[in-house]
């Protein structure tokens, strides 16, 4: 599979590399300008809320249009958004251009993510989905691992605007690589579609499926708990490392790389060792919660780093658990719209976490907020895993 579909995985890698460069820049540049972690939390809120609110719309589009076309459009439009954002910043100035750019790119990333999910389901039906998802995550994590280093070391020599230009070029290269993928011919055709409903009716139908299909609501609550921690960690990591612990930007970048390496190790385990679905979910949830406690203690940079690595590594194991569960439960003809609604509900806790950071964190110290959110995650876990 890796040899046959190398162009596909190369395209994934380049796309994620560009996305993660932009994600790395936002909290770091905001904190450098303001010196306050609350501003980073507020920027994270404005960046992530539009991204996750658009998932239901993206899911409906995926059920109505070819996912390969949507995947390419989202990638090229991200490149165009980078050009417009940097042009506006050069002409008018101000950090809000970076926040706006991130919000627009995030919305387009939403469409790309859902289209990619459908491509994985339809073009790799001859493979075990857990294995396909793990290899896809491995390609993504290579981009996640390299992006902080690329961004941090480029910022030594260039302003952050130039680093965004590099991300623009990577989006274009990713689309070029995708054009060489022969697997587009393997895309499974779905059964003849029922009469198309109005988009609002599609949304209502998806919400009804989420409520009625067994196991989905429980998984959504669990994912919301995980994403509270992911959101708080993403919003505060730059401030905690470069501010509270007084480490350099390069040290912060290496922490991000360490998180990507931890994820690669966990994904390799998931791809090659057959673990039950329930085991995947429980193990990853418990270790993410423990990692959140370590980051909230904030006793030493190494303790914080250990917690960060647990959160980063086992987030993707939990992600595979949720994606596999969705594939097993949701009917194929409703997969796009229902998945869009589920991902929206799963991830609304991320911008909420950013808002909590903005309201309650003080200066560069977010320890109290991190511990409080870890407690919320623990309560959600106890409630949902006891309800079988």
Automatic annotation (TrEMBL):
Gene3D superfamilies (UniProt xref): MFS general substrate transporter like domains
Location, primary (coarse class): membrane
Subcellular location: Cell membrane
Transmembrane segments: 7-31, 37-55, 76-99, 105-124, 136-156, 162-182, 227-246, 253-273, 285-314, 368-385
InterPro entries: MFS, MFS_trans_sf
Bilayer topology annotation: Multi-pass membrane protein
UniProt KW Magnesium keyword: no
SUPFAM superfamilies: MFS general substrate transporter (SSF103473)
Alphabetical keyword list: Cell membrane, Membrane, Transmembrane, Transmembrane helix, Transport
One function term, GO molecular function aspect: transmembrane transporter activity
GO CC field: plasma membrane
Name of this chain's protein: MFS transporter
Organism: Roseibium marinum
């Amino acid at each position: 599979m890796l040899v046959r579909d190398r162009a596909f995985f190369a395209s994934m890698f380049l796309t994620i590399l560009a996305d993660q460069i932009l994600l790395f820049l936002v909290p770091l540049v905001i904190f450098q300008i303001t010196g306050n972690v609350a501003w980073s939390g507020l920027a994270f809120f404005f960046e992530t809320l539009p991204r996750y609110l658009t998932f239901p719309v993206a899911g409906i589009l995926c059920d109505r249009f070819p996912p390969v076309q949507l995947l390419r459009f989202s990638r090229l439009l991200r490149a165009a958004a980078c050009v417009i954002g940097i042009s506006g910043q050069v002409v008018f100035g101000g950090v809000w251009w970076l926040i706006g750019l991130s919000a627009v790119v995030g919305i387009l990333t939403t469409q790309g993510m859902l289209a990619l999910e459908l491509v994985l389901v339809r073009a790799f039906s001859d493979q075990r989905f857990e294995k396909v998802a793990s290899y896809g995550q491995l390609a993504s994590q290579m981009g996640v691992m390299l992006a902080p280093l690329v961004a941090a070391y480029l910022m030594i020599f260039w302003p952050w605007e130039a680093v965004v230009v590099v991300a623009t070029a990577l989006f274009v290269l990713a689309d070029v690589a995708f054009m060489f993928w022969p697997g587009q011919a393997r895309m499974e055709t779905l059964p003849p579609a029922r009469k198309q409903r109005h988009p609002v009716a599609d949304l209502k139908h998806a919400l009804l499926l989420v409520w009625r299909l067994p196991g989905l609501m429980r998984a959504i609550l669990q994912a919301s708990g995980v994403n509270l921690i992911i959101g708080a960690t993403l919003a505060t990591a730059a401030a905690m490392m470069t501010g509270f612990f007084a480490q350099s930007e390069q040290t912060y970048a290496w922490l991000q790389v360490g998180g990507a390496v931890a994820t690669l190790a966990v994904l390799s385990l998931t791809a090659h060792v057959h673990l039950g679905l329930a085991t995947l979910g429980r193990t990853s949830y418990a270790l993410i919660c423990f990692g959140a406690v370590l980051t909230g203690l904030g006793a030493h940079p190494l303790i914080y780093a250990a917690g960060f690595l647990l959160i980063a590594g086992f987030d993707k194991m939990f992600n595979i658990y949720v994606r596999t569960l969705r594939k097993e439960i949701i009917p194929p003809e409703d997969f796009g719209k229902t998945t869009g609604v589920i991902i929206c509900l799963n991830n609304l806790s991320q911008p909420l976490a950013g808002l909590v950071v903005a309201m309650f964190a003080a200066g560069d110290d977010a320890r109290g907020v991190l511990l409080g959110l870890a407690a919320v995650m623990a309560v959600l876990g106890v409630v949902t895993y006891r309800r079988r």
